[in-house]
Every structure is written in structure tokens, then in C-alpha cells.
Amino acid sequence: MKIYKVGDKQKAVCESCQSLTGATFMLRDVPFSDGSGIVKNVLAGVCDSCKEVVLIPHQSTPAIKKQLDTQKKAVETRVPAHMVDILNLASVELGGSTDFSNALIKYYLHNLSEQKTSVKGLIKYLESDLAKGVAQKRISLKGRQVSKEIDNIKFKTSIGSTTDVLKAVVLKINDDVFVHPKTQLINSLKGVAAAFA
């Protein structure tokens, strides 16, 4: 692997100029392509013509990864112990291990946030007896989109707290897998569990 220094030159294809151009390595603030953040002061190849970033050398990868990891803000909440048991049982029922439970919640959060699954009726789960109990166990989720997806669900359902969103999601999983099994969904989740294993 070649290590580049500030001021080194290389040829690169510039999308803005739509041509092969010279690039000079400089320290730059580089935004993520999805607009979710910025990596500050990282070595990047900059087009000599339009001054746009045209390449990132391999040596900058650890700095980019570090920034991505800091964006994976943990969402933590405490729930009654039986909710963690429901998640573990559902994970095993779907062919995964108990390690699959966080991926299962994130799958539901994503689908509910993007309205691939209806959020209508989600709040009703909070009125059930299973929603009650002393919060004795912890659910901890990490991911770049988890907080945003929870906020979307809060907005769409008028559920006020992150804890209540996660409780409702756990109880929806219980309903979909055990109480009123949804065969098509269960088969899809079995595929996700198999890929996760």
C-alpha cells in the first residue's frame, strides 16, 4: 500500500469536470455521500481544476471508520424482563440465536419508520398487560439510523418516549410471531436470521 503525503500528486477521474485530471493530496473536510455527517481534516485527493474531492486514499480509511463509529449513537432503555425474554424467544423461533434480537428490533424500527409496516395500532400495545412491569433489563441498540427511525415512529404515532416505542415494537414482534403469526413476514424474518447467523 502506498502512503501519500500532503502535496503528493496523482491522476484521477473527476465527476464534476467529467475528465481525467490531476489531483493533489490535501487535508480536507469530507462529507459522507448520504449527507449524514462529515469527516474533518482527512487526507483526500482534490481535483486541481475544480477543487472537488475526487479520491480518498486507503490510509484515510481508519479516520473515516472512526467518524462512522461515533455516529452510531447507542439508544439505551430499560424494560421489564419479560420483554427481553420475548425478543430472545422470537429470535430462536425465527432460526437465529439470542444475538439476533437487536437486529430483529432494528428490522422492525426500519420498516415502521419507512412505513413498510403500518404504524397504525402500534400504540395499542402499550395498553396491554404485557406492557406493564418493573424495568429490570436493558435494551441497547447501535446504528446510524436507529435514533432517527425511533423519532420518525414517535412523530407518526404520538408515542412520547423511546422506551414506549421499543416496548410497543417488542409487543408487535410478539404479536406477529406468536399471537397472530404472519407466515409471509415470519418467512422473511427467517431469511434475515439465516443471513445474520
How many helical stretches? 6
Annotation, overall tally of beta strands:
6
Task: Describe the sheet with the most strands.
Answer: 4 strands, antiparallel
Based on helices, strands and strand pairing, what is the structural class?
Answer: alpha+beta
Terminal Cα span? 33 Å
In N-to-C order, the SSE pattern is EEEEHEHHEHHH
Categorize the overall geometry. Answer: elongated
Describe this structure in words.
This protein is α+β, with helices and mostly antiparallel strands and 197 residues long. The chain folds into two domains: 9-71, Roll (Ubiquitin-like (UB roll)), CATH 3.10.20; 75-196. Helix content is 41%, strand content 23%. It has helices spanning 61-71, 81-93, 101-113, 146-157, 162-179, 183-196, and strands spanning 9-14, 19-31, 38-47, 53-55, 75-80, 135-141. Strands 1-2-3-4 form a four-stranded antiparallel β-sheet, with helices on one face. Strands 5-6 form a two-stranded antiparallel sheet. Strand 2 (19-31) and strand 3 (38-47) form a beta hairpin. Helix 2 crosses helix 3 (101-113), helix 2 packs across helix 5 and helix 3 crosses helix 4. The longest helix has 18 residues, at 162-179. The two termini are 33 Å apart. The model has no long low-confidence stretch (mean pLDDT 92).
